Amino acid sequence: MVEGPGTTRNGIKAEQLIGQKILNITTSKGVHNPWWTNRKLSQVVKIGKELFLIFALIDETIIKEQNQQTPNHDLALRLHFGMVGSLHINNHGTQTRQYKGRQPDMPTLEISFESKLLRTYDTTISIPINAIAPRTKYQRLHTFDCCSDDFSLDNVVEKLMSPSLSISRDTVISDVLLDQNLCPGFGNVIKVEGMHQARIHPKRPLSSLNEEELRLVVDKCQKYAMRWFREGRAPTKAVYNQTSCGTCHKVSVRICRVGGSNRTTFWCVNCQPMNPNALQQHAVATSQNIPNGIKRACPTHGPANVMLRRCKKSGMNEQRIFYCCKKSNCRFFSWADTNFPMCKCKKRAVLRVSKTDKTGGRWFFFCAKRGPTANGCGYFEWADQKYLDRYGQLLTPLL
Length: 399
Ligand SMILES: [Zn+2]
Ligand SMILES: [Zn+2]
Ligand SMILES: [Zn+2]
Hints:
Layout: H1 4-15, E1 22-27, E2 39-47, E3 50-57, H2 60-66, E4 75-80, E5 86-91, E6 109-113, E7 116-121, E8 124-125, E9 129-130, H3 132-141, H4 153-161, H5 173-176, H6 188-197, H7 211-231, E10 253-258, E11 263-268, H8 280-286, E12 306-310, E13 321-325, E14 333-335, E15 350-353, E16 363-366, E17 380-382, H9 385-389
Antiparallel strand pairs: 1-6, 2-3, 3-4, 4-8, 4-9, 5-7, 6-7, 10-11, 12-13, 13-14, 15-16, 16-17
Helix pairs in contact: 1-7, 4-7, 6-7
Bound molecules: zinc ion (3 copies).
One zinc ion binds at residues 298, 300-301, 305, 325, 327, 330, 332.
């Protein structure tokens, strides 16, 4: 997911084109009327995970007629980067993006300026709207935006404590932090890591957090977001997509879909108790130590570059896990499931992690031919720890 930091970085890239005239715009949906005629990029507005490109008329006389500082007829294009969206500034004549062995990618948006091309991929674009709406939204939210220079921790905490808060106080904190009207820019990774650093359990209702805890969790999320913004990639994750906790080093990370947003959430049962005063000792006692794993090594690049992946191609090997090498041109490959049990249809069982409320984080085996039409044997079994230990840290829940 592209969270606030990525959107803000994309906005900064786009700002270099402010003042330039638009020659043409194409989108993946096609364009019927050239609404951009005689317009230039006049402003880039960043609000949380949304980016607005604002286009003003070039013809001064029209603006003078309106007699306003920010004319009412400015138009804005809204961009949202979803899971993997991106924004690029290219020179004219540059080919579109192409991944090794695939067809060239078609941009979802291409704006041709006098000197450069602005392209986005895998991005949601809304039809142009009047620029008043995003400007108003910016005025309302900029002090809450985690990557804004105007971010104010006091303002966010005050709003969350306010009696006139727009959401129910029963809302779990995990959902509160994802609410783009309260904490614009926070996404699932920032939320998970911020709650972990603040030692807050994701299912605690907003009403159970005192001011000090709220301040701590918002502050940790925002600082994580700012590091992500400065470094250009997500900082080290202690619990997100981990099996063992990066803080206490126990195999104590739970995974579960949480709250009304139903987002996959991770937390450490040891570091983030539901009741801050209780159960810590019990959790420590039931956690295991991290297994080191049997070190697999790439014959060329050694053990440090080995990773575990899942076969996504449909067919007889779908969902099987294998070892491969991080180096881009390396062909190292080895199935990682050769010791798994066989199901009754004599197929290698598939290993996955549970995300349910009761058993989230437990690994299980099942028949690869699952589902109503797949004709499988229905085999299911919880995976014994001995099967998991060999992978050590390579085995991640989102694999
Ligand atoms: Zn922990
Ligand atoms: Zn290799
Ligand atoms: Zn089977």
